[in-house]
Amino acid sequence: MAHKLAFIGFGTVGQGLAEILKNKKEQLKINEQFEAEIVAISDFKKGSIYHPRGLDIETALEVLKETGNLENYPSSPGLVTGWDSLTTIRESNADTIVEVSYTDVQTGQPAIDHCRTAFMAKKNVVMTNKGPVALAYQELSQLAEKQGVHWGFEGTVMSGTPSLRMPIAALAGNEIYEIRGILNGTTNYILTKMEDEGVTYEEALKEAQALGYAEADPTSDVEGFDARYKIAILANYVMKEPLSVEEISCRGITNITRHDIETAKAQGKRWKLLAKARKENGKIVASIAPEKVEVTDPLASIKGAVNAIAYDCDLLGTITLSGAGAGKVETGFSLLIDLINIDRERKLVNI
Question: Which of 31, 67, 287, 303 has a Cα at 20 to 30 A from 56?
């Protein structure tokens, strides 16, 4: 039986998942016994379409590319247009909501309300929005559990690189007493550029913007706010300890100079913007700050717009994972793996 999906938001990430589902349809069916059917797409700017028997992905993508409006999708009996996001969540026959809307990370909205509405309607949610997980993890995880539904958010920390699923599944039985990570590719690219080419912070930032790694307003990245949300997610989910964003001290890289870079090199060290969370006296202490890391440290070898994370475990010692922290396909994959795992768990329940 096909897994019915409703997309809330249909920008780069949503379209990335849709393209994966289209291109890998037969492979997913054969190898994973996974079939997906998109029944609804609701986007504030691009319009809204719903059909209980499913939409044609290729047609929806073509209509959007050619006209910019999903509501130009070919009319057919049963097709509904014009629903807002909350109506789509409540009224569609989707099993799972793919929440990829634009969200204000300061408030977590509208994605927090999307999650609440979906869970109350007994629908699963998969998402890449950091805001709801960082700001409302305790409330939303408890609501999902109470309603007997699944909440997947692998893509909120390191895109498709399994920084959340890997420790939960593969490091079970360990106590993870510290997490250290390079969780923002933009800042890592800037610091790498400054070290390798001797350019200033301003010059490196300009190139990062030209390549699309940094936004026109790079504040969230360079001041450490993006990494701050991610370490909050890791503390709550992986370390299983409540930690609010406000409790995390935060300092970015804007004051790092070429002199700082050269001084670190002379000391056999390398600057990295590190996100850290460690257990101290029964609580989590977390921070975001640039640090000089010994070149022998596994995190020191991570260059460019790449992310990495190190888990310090009582049984295995330090386990380091690195990979892409952004990208259309990579983030689309993070949603796919959440969907596949929900599907696997549904099948186990029905055995």
Answer: 31
